[in-house]
Amino acid sequence: MNINSSISSMPIAVFDSGFGGLTVLKQLLQLLPNENYIYLGDNINIPYGDKSEEEIINLTSKMVEFLISKKCKIIIIACNTISACAYNILKQKYDIPIIEVISNGVADALNKTKNNNISVMATEFTVHSNVYKNKINKHNKESKITQISCKELCPMIENDWYSYDNRLDVLKNYLKNIDDKSDTLILACTHYPHIIDDIKKTLEYNVKNSIKNIIDPAYHTSMSVKEYLEKNNLINTDKTNDITIYTTASVEKEEKIINIFMPKDRKYKLEQIKL
Ligand code: DGL
């Protein structure tokens, strides 16, 4: 067995502060169905979007060390907040390929917008970091970017979105801030694609909106992972394809979310861990 073939059967690691990164895992499963995966959600410490930079870096380093201890071949930061806060630090600190979601979301948005007027929904941390705005303006300084900080969404999605009777009102309140001329909306928190149907419904309600493209950075991120693995000859060729989901909260809660949001034709091993 050569070195590459033993690395290729190692899992792809995906992590997030909670359930959001499952939207990225879902895309990866479609694009790379024969890979082994490990997923880690720090559900006990969510939301990260309200935390300080120092807190996010501390929690994230523990997660990355856990994933490395599981002998993964690549790590995907399936969280915009962590990507905004810690990607550069993690890249410097750890000697393992790491892919983040933000530059992938930006690339997809820039490909699709026709008028360079883009709105971005994200956590407080991601909005205040201005990372989307800066990255888009680096490509085109004329682009008009409207950033909307959606503080309540991530905790509501994590705590069973459909149990909130006021959920569409909460969404309306945020989405009314989209620039009337934006043709592209980036879902810059990996939790938001879980509620894409309600987002679409709410956009339709606002007759003034001109959104033509809704960007889920998970799609472009998965494409980047595939390209990286192909280029480095690291695609798994073994028959095993395991998916293990680790959570710092309860396995029961994770199981419920998986039943709602994840493909039913796959088997998921669930394990609670302490970081
Ligand atoms: N899914 C995370 C993101 O993409 C949620 C952040 C949070 O924990 O607040 O930003």
UniProtKB/TrEMBL annotation:
Active site (record annotation): C79 (proton donor/acceptor), C189 (proton donor/acceptor)
PROSITE patterns: ASP_GLU_RACEMASE_2
Any one GO molecular function term: glutamate racemase activity
Pfam family, one: Asp_Glu_race
EC number: 5.1.1.3
GO biological process: cell wall organization; peptidoglycan biosynthetic process; regulation of cell shape
Domain of life: Bacteria
Chain positions recorded as substrate binding sites: D16, S17, Y48, G49, N80, T81, T190, H191
Catalysis performed (reactions): L-glutamate = D-glutamate
Keywords linked to the UniProt accession: Cell shape, Cell wall biogenesis/degradation, Isomerase, Peptidoglycan synthesis
The protein's annotated pathway: Cell wall biogenesis; peptidoglycan biosynthesis
Function: Provides the (R)-glutamate required for cell wall biosynthesis.
Family label: Belongs to the aspartate/glutamate racemases family.
Protein name per the record: Glutamate racemase
Taxonomic classification: Bacteria, Pseudomonadati, Spirochaetota, Spirochaetia, Brachyspirales
